[in-house]
Amino acid sequence: MTESREGRTLLGMLVAVSCDIASDDHRKAIYDLLTQYGFKRVLKSLFESAAMDESTLVRLKRDIDRATDSYDKVRFYQYPLEQTLVITSLEEKKWRKMKVKA
Fold it and tell me: How far is 95 from 77, CA to CA, in rounded Å?
């Protein structure tokens, strides 16, 4: 559980998504997907959600995979997942996962 700036309690994990998208069409598609899934844009190519659950995140990753090609890069920072920080990246159409434990 986390607390928003408005003092509301949010359930789920904090997820930040960083994008390096090669084409304008793919960029628009990815940014639209992130917005549809409830992410807020916080920087030019960085989005955040503080109320994401694992099953929704799996669907989002599948949708992003369909909307990208080998030139696009997307990186997810998820906390807490399995009590750790998990960094998942899509690069050259391959997903990689790294767990960072304290």
Answer: 13
Q: In whole angstroms, how far apart are CA 11 and each of 3, 14, 99?
A: 9, 9, 21
Give one DSSP letter per residue of 40-84, joined into a string.
Answer: EEEETTEEEEEEE-HHHHHHHHHHHHHH--TT-EEEEEEEEETTE
pLDDT(48) > 60:
yes
CATH topology (fold) of 2-100: Alpha-Beta Plaits (3.30.70)
Instruction: Say yes or no to pLDDT of 11 above 80.
Output: no
37 within 8 A of 62, measured Cβ to Cβ: no
pLDDT of residue 83: 80
pTM, rounded to two decimals: 0.84
Question: What pLDDT is attached to residue 102?
Answer: 73
Cα 14 from Cα 9, distance rounded (Å): 13
